[in-house]
Amino acid sequence: MPTSAKRVLLAAALAAVLAAGLPAQIAPPDPAPLLGQWLLEVNAGEIYFLPFELKLVEGKLTGSLSEQSGMFTNVPITAVVWDGTTLKFEAKIPTPPDGSERPVKVEFKLDKGKLVGGFTIEELGLVAPTTGTKK
Questions:
Q1: Whether 80 contacts 59, CB under 8 Å
Q2: Are the beta carbons of 93 and 102 closer than 8 angstroms?
Q3: Distance of alpha carbon 54 from alpha carbon 16, whole angstroms
Q4: Rounded to whole angstroms, how far apart are CA atoms 130 and 91?
Q5: Which residues, other chains included, contact 133 with Cβ-Cβ below 8 Å and sequence gap of 6+?
Q6: Which of 24, 48, 85, 101 is such that its CA lies 20 to 30 A from the CA of 66?
Q7: 61: which strand partners?
C-alpha cells in the first residue's frame, strides 16, 4: 500500500475513533410553551397577583415581573434556566412587610399548561406557593 493511502486510512480511522468518543449534541429544550404573558398567583399569607412575561431574545429566555396593584413593574428576571420541565429564575423585588427590595428565587414545573411552584425569599425565611396561568 502506498504511503499516501496509509495516511488517508490512518486519518479516517483516527477521525472515526474521535467521533465515537464524543457525546451526541443534545438540542436544548423547546421554550415555546413558556413564551408569552402569564398571571402568577402568589400565596404569601396574602394573595398577590404578578403579571409575568417570558420572551426569547437572541436564543435566551428573558422576562419581567410586575405586581398587579403597582407595588413594582417590569422587574427583570435573571439566571433563567429551563430544562424542559422545570423553570428557574431570580429577581429582586420590593416585598412586605417594609417594601424593601429583596432577592427572590423562583422555581416552577410546567404541568398541563400551568406553572406550579413557588417563590423563595431566604432573607424572610418565606416560601410562597405559586400557580401561573397563561393569558
A1: no
A2: yes
A3: 42
A4: 15
A5: 38, 39, 41, 114, 115
A6: 85
A7: 56
Residue 91 CA to residue 103 CA, distance in Å, equals 6
**Coil, strand, or helix at residue 32?**
helix
What is this structure's pTM? 0.78
The three-state secondary structure class of 23 is coil
Grid cell in block for residue 51: 403579571
Beta partners for residue 122, in sequence order: none
**Using one digit for the tens of pLDDT, what is the confidence trace for 38-91?**
999 999 999 999 999 999 999 999 999 999 999 999 999 999 999 999 999 999
The residue type of 52 is F
> Residue 107 has which C-alpha cell?
422555581
